[in-house]
């Protein structure tokens, strides 16, 4: 049989939403061309689709629009700025869930100039023997994420989670979110404020303030990729006894 065209799927999404980014995706994944779209034998009017895609490109260019967004039902927020090759974004995942979960409340990540600078591990590596292996436990554990561990214990998984977003401010050059949830660690305060501050059309600062009260020991983890991280004003101590 003939497989359905994903270009048709993107076209249908455009018809439903009016979002020109779907047309730009069609254009970009067709070798930066509108010709031949949507590669679907069942399409009644391919010419109309080609014309609509080309018109969107002529009007807006092919760069995708990255807007700041807060998805409270999913417990994730993205602060975004810039366009095209200068796009950058910092995100925060501020809940924990029981299905295919990570214990990663208030984990953050960073994109810049086309690079994923602080990537999340993603789906646990079950190829090492199923769901009950050291590799899976590490992927799920708090220590493998860019967040704070209290008393060397993984965060608690919360049922019927209702996120507490205390601040959501999106301006032209300054964007911020603050969330809090003490049930992750059972302490008095567990709150993170994340800010994206533009200094030009090409670059931004990220300001990150994590407030924790309760417990005896707080360990803040920061992991990166494709970058070099440095620390100033803090004396680091090595350890090899952190377990997931």
Beta-strand percent range: 25-35%
Instruction: Please summarize the sheet with the most strands.
Output: 5 strands, antiparallel
N to C succession of SSEs: HHHEEEEEHEEEEEE
Radius of gyration: 22 Å
Structure annotation, total helices: 4
Give a count of the beta strands, DSSP E runs of length 2 or more: 11
How far apart lie the N and C ends?
A: 47 Å
The helix fraction, in percent, is 10-25%
Indicate the overall shape.
globular
Strand order, main sheet: write it out.
Answer: 1-2-3-4-5
Mean pLDDT: 91
The multimeric state of the shown protein is: single chain
Short key terms for the protein model shown above:
244 residues, alpha+beta, five-stranded antiparallel sheet, four-stranded antiparallel sheet, 11 strands
Topology:
Layout: H1 6-17, H2 21-28, H3 46-60, E1 69-71, E2 76-81, E3 88-93, E4 107-112, E5 115-116, H4 134-140, E6 148-150, E7 165-170, E8 174-180, E9 189-198, E10 204-213, E11 218-220
Antiparallel strand pairs: 1-2, 2-3, 3-4, 4-5, 6-11, 7-8, 8-9, 9-10
Helix pairs in contact: 1-2, 2-3
Task: Describe the structure in brief.
The chain is of the alpha+beta class. Strands 1-2-3-4-5 form a five-stranded antiparallel beta sheet, with no helix packed on it. It has a four-stranded antiparallel beta sheet with strand order 7-8-9-10, with no helix packed on it. A two-stranded antiparallel ribbon has the order 6-11.
Question: What does this molecule look like?
Answer:
The protein has 244 residues and is of the alpha+beta class. 17% of the residues lie in helices and 25% in strands. The chain contains 4 helices and 11 strands. The strands form 3 sheets. It has a 5-stranded antiparallel sheet, with no helix packed on it. A 4-stranded antiparallel sheet has the order 7-8-9-10, with no helix packed on it. Strand 1 (69-71) and strand 2 (76-81) form a beta hairpin. Helix 2 crosses helix 3. The radius of gyration is 22 Å and the shape is globular. The mean pLDDT is 91.
């Amino acid at each position: 049989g003939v497989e359905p065209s994903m270009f048709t799927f993107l076209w249908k999404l455009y018809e439903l939403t009016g979002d020109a980014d779907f047309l730009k995706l069609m254009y970009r994944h067709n070798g930066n061309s509108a010709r031949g779209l949507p590669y679907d034998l069942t399409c009644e009017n391919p010419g109309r689709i080609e014309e609509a895609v080309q018109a969107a490109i002529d009007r807006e260019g092919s760069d995708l629009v990255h807007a700041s967004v807060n998805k409270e039902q999913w417990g994730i927020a993205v602060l975004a700025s810039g366009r095209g090759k200068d796009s950058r974004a910092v995100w925060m995942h501020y809940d924990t869930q029981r299905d295919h979960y990570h214990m990663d409340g208030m984990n953050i990540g960073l994109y810049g100039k086309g690079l994923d600078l602080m990537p999340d591990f993603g789906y646990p590596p079950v190829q090492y023997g199923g769901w009950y292996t050291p590799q899976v436990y590490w992927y799920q554990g708090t220590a493998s994420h860019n967040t704070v561990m209290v008393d060397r214990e993984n965060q608690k998984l919360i049922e019927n989670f209702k996120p507490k977003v205390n601040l959501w401010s999106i301006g032209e050059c300054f964007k911020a979110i603050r969330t809090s949830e003490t049930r992750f660690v059972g302490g008095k305060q567990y709150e993170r404020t994340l800010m994206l501050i533009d200094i030009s059309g090409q670059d931004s600062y990220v300001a990150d303030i994590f407030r924790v009260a309760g417990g005896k020991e707080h360990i803040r983890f920061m992991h990166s990729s494709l970058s070099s991280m440095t620390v100033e004003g803090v004396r680091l101590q090595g350890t090899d006894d952190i377990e997931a």
